[in-house]
Specification:
The chain is of the alpha/beta class. It is built from 18 helices and 8 strands. α10 links the parallel β4 and β5. α5 packs parallel to α7 and α17 runs antiparallel to α18. The radius of gyration is 19 Å and the shape is globular. Bound molecules: 6-chloro-9H-purine and zinc ion. It is found in: Cytoplasm; Nucleus.
């Protein structure tokens, strides 16, 4: 059931493309498009399980049919098993950064799942070195800024998380890894399980930024408990915050940004359509949010596709889109100088389109 109520005409599409955007919720492993996946499987001699699709078309069919988050994750962890060498991690991230630039995304804060690779015998340094080299090259080649956020897999014990945090110490020290996140199956693994991991990292590296997936499948208390026990300053997804007025008030007062992923929520059956998301309510109540891609290779769209999907359901004005873009810049973890650059670019694009779009 598609609830496309508003047109995204050619002018609006160009505006949304040119509008400077920031990505705050993207799993690099979730940018592994089927063609690259099969190419890497061949070059690395990886035998995928017999239950795994064998063609791009079969992959696409599977991606139309995820029952829920767990069903997706089961497939995603197998998919990432083709990533072996530093070059693989570099190619994956570089392909994404090129696509982001094309979409008008000028600053990306991207997740990666080291435990998904360590478990398969891939060294931490191989993963981070490939991803970091791509961040540096993307800045030179595309002029975009990019930050790495390491995620802990919540289905693994927190003792495992502690080990990974210790291995990552030198990268946090150098600023190569900028933040910590928490992902994977949400409901069975509440935030409290990882309180020690977050506390340890914050103690060792006080300037580290903290976020966590919460309120995607878990209820609104997962959002509150992530704020209270993990001391995060951003929430990934957070759509279920809409069920608590007091939480929405808190998010507004403390300007805690939700990194929403509209197309992901539809593909994983969180909502039947983008039009069912409480984006208009968040807007009205001043809950800051950004619009993001999550796992774009699997969920049928990158950042611009997500912006367009939101526009066709909510029909925001140019002023409202400007506010969304500025909120994303304010909620980013880049320095004030970069934020000012991005804000100036927003001004230029909005002035240009004010004459074209009413
Ligand atoms: C994820 Cl959509 C989503 N939720 C939780 N963990 C994830 N890892 C990759 N995509
Ligand atoms: Zn996610």
């Amino acid at each position: 059931m598609a609830l496309t109520k508003y047109e995204c005409n050619a002018h609006m599409h160009s505006f949304l493309k040119e509008l400077p955007k920031c990505e705050h919720h993207l799993h690099l492993e979730g940018t592994l498009e089927p063609d690259l996946l099969f190419k890497m499987a061949t070059r690395n001699n990886i035998q995928l399980p017999s239950s795994f699709p064998t063609t791009v078309a079969q992959c696409k069919a599977k991606y139309e049919d995820f029952a829920d988050l767990q069903d997706f994750l089961d497939h995603y962890y197998v998919g990432m098993s083709v990533l072996i060498t530093e070059e693989d991690f570099y190619d994956l991230a570089m392909t994404y950064f090129a696509k982001a630039k094309e979409d008008g995304c000028l600053h990306s804060e991207v997740f990666f799942d080291p435990q998904g690779h360590l478990q398969r015998g891939i060294e931490f340094d191989v993963v981070v070195s490939g991803f970091n080299r791509a961040c540096e090259d993307a800045k030179i080649k595309f002029g975009t800024t990019n930050k790495l956020i390491m995620c802990l897999l919540r289905h693994l014990p927190s003792s495992d998380g502690i080990q990974v945090i210790e291995s990552a110490g030198k990268y946090y020290q150098d600023g190569i890894i900028h933040g910590l996140g928490l992902d994977s199956s949400e409901k069975p693994f509440p935030p409290e399980l990882f309180e020690n991991c977050y506390a340890l990292l914050k103690e060792n590296h006080p300037h580290v930024e903290l976020t966590a997936h919460a309120g995607e499948e878990g209820d609104h208390t997962f959002v509150e408990r992530s704020l209270d026990t993990l001391k995060v300053t951003r929430i990934d997804h957070g759509v279920n915050s809409k069920h608590s007025e007091s939480l929405m008030k808190r998010l507004n007062e403390k300007q805690i940004m939700l990194s929403l992923c509209p197309l992901s929520n539809v593909k994983l059956q969180v909502v039947p359509d983008v039009g069912h998301l409480p984006i208009d309510v968040f807007m009205e109540k001043g809950v800051p949010f950004s619009i993001n891609s999550d796992d774009p290779a699997y969920f049928g769209g990158y950042i611009l596709d997500n912006y367009v999907a939101v526009h066709t359901r909510f029909g925001f004005s140019l002023e409202q889109w400007k506010q969304i873009s500025l909120n994303g810049i304010n909620g980013s973890w880049c320095d004030e100088g970069r934020k000012q650059e991005l804000r100036s670019l927003v001004e230029v694009v909005c002035t240009k389109y004010a004459r074209i779009i009413d």
